[in-house]
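Q: What would this complex look like in 3D?
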Amino acid sequence: MSSENQISFTDIPDAIASASGTDRSVSMTVDSELYPLQAVYGASYIFIDRCYVFIDRPAPGSYRITLSAKQSVEEAEALRQLVGEFANELLSCTWRHQVTQDNRVAIETVTVQAIAGAMGEPSLDDLADFDFTDEALDDPLGIAQSWEEKHGRPSPDAKAKTASEPGADEAKADAEEASA
Amino acid sequence: MKPINLAEIKPRPGTQAFFRWRQIGDDAILITNLEGNWLILTVEEFTQFARGESTPDSPLHERLLDKNFLRSNYDVQAASERVKARKYFVHGGPLLHVMVVTLRCNETCVYCHASRANMDEVDTDMSIETARKAVDLALSSTNGFITIEFQGGEPLVNFPVVKEIIEYATERNKEIQKRLEFTMVSNFALLTEEKLQYLLANKVQLCTSIDGPEELHNAQRKLPVSHNAFQAAAGWIKRVNEAYIEIGLDPTLYHVEALLTTTKATLGKWKEVVDTYVGLGCKTIFLRPVDPFGFAERARLRLEYPRGEYLEFYRKSVDYMIELNKQGVEILERYAAIFLTKMLRGEDPNFLDNRNPAGAGIGQLAYSYDGKVYSCDEGRMLAATQDQTFCLGDVDTPYRKIVGHETIRAMVIATNLDQQPDCVNCAYNPYCGTNAAYNYKAQGSVFGRMRDNNVCAVHKGIQDYLFEKLAENDPEVMAIFERWTTIRPREHFVQDPGQTPALEAAEAEV
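A: Here is my prediction, written as structure tokens for the whole assembly.
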């Protein structure tokens, strides 16, 4: 952004928004503690028909959103309008994010009832097409494995059994030494 | 209106159960609760209530108790029963099936939401094969009530396909046994006595569009040759109403209703609009604002207006309609009837664009002439302007994939007012609804932003007006509102599942 073409908004603090007439773009910096990332994504997304949208983190604790208009927007007022619209949408998304968390159970219950009610019971044809394989349970990262399985350690049961056997204390000491 | 001062009232938790509130007059505060009970309190009463200080045995305490506003006596069972009654539609499945049998139209409307095609564009006609598949899909719905609504373009332009849908659906319904109805939205200009007899014999409910007085109607709806779209519609309204009487139907219940699209030019003509409708024998006016779909978007500078001006128009129109009712003229406003039914009866009339969640996909589906299936009428309107966001598949797509589509899930969530900033705290939450396709078009996301959303402004403004009227508690007005919320079923239009389509007989006679 070239500084000589920098546009100032008299009613928006420079630290929050800056604009360039040449690049027909505006950049806004927002506090990541005030605005969750999901809200930043949500608000940014609705501008993609009008703007190219770039999101980055210029510093820890802040997001910077740059809206670069696809079509010529050089007047300061038009750029200010983009900033204002984005700010309002961001607030709306942030509050929705909070409200959705608060009312999650009610929202999910209604949605499930509505969709299930409209879909009805699956027919035999639907069931014939249903994928009953356990592919969805494939676990290449071993997330579903127990800690003992994943790291080759004896399970608590096996440990208890080993502890009751002669020489168990020596084996435990060897293991601790090895891990140290 | 002088706003109340919450700093002076100093609200604090006390005896109140959950409530929302809105000031509707200098000395009138509306409170509503989760299940949609409401009370209008004076500022003094509201102050007591908000401070949690209602004194047992006081008249206020009795009123609060009666409407379930008190924490200590909160009747969970009663509340859940009322919520259940209000939300009966949630699991019902699609009942309205909009079939766009052609995009061709003989009229050109300045605001055409459907983006009509010229009369020679026959490639925008639905084929018989597509029509049959659309009927199969519609009858696959889990809902026991099915309404097939013929739309366009002008549906009479592709009358053979209209007939095919009626005959095929009626035949298939013999086996499926749903409560099946047909409705047609037409400008009537292409209606003939032969077509009318066919539609009457097959119990198709007819509806048309009237934009107000003749001059305004003809300025907005161009009909070639005669150049008088109003007379074409008015003449057939009269004839259809006569025909209903001829076949022995009660004219107070069975008559043609019309739809209004309010443009900038309509706003100053509120009295003429109402008088025109009354003069045509209509008993209902639906004061719908113009929507930003189709041609209306291109012509918005000519057609659009601030919603504050619309609400002034609305108030004047309905005030006048109330005065006419007091003089014995039977005329109601549809928006008012929808909201009042929820407010006064605790029931939902299931108007799909104004319920929570809205009906897109779970209450209606729209079938375009080319076989594509959309979540709602507005979805297919957007598709006509090259936006397929709300396309769910086509008539070959299995039913469960259509209604289980992720777009439907998103729309159900987006129109659930419990996730909507503003709506979660709004006193009108129990009676209101939002439209995801409108939000998407007007504000870029299915969620929208209610604070600067035109549909929200209209809904809030109308409910303000209605609650102001309820606060006045004029017995004559209350009696009129009571009538407006009385649902009189029109059983004649329900198809008898055992009947043979009347078309062959009608055709033989012609």
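A: To summarize the key features: Chain A touches chain B through 28 residues (CB under 8 Å). Residues 16 and 113 of chain A are 43 Å apart (CA to CA).
Q: Very helpful, thank you.
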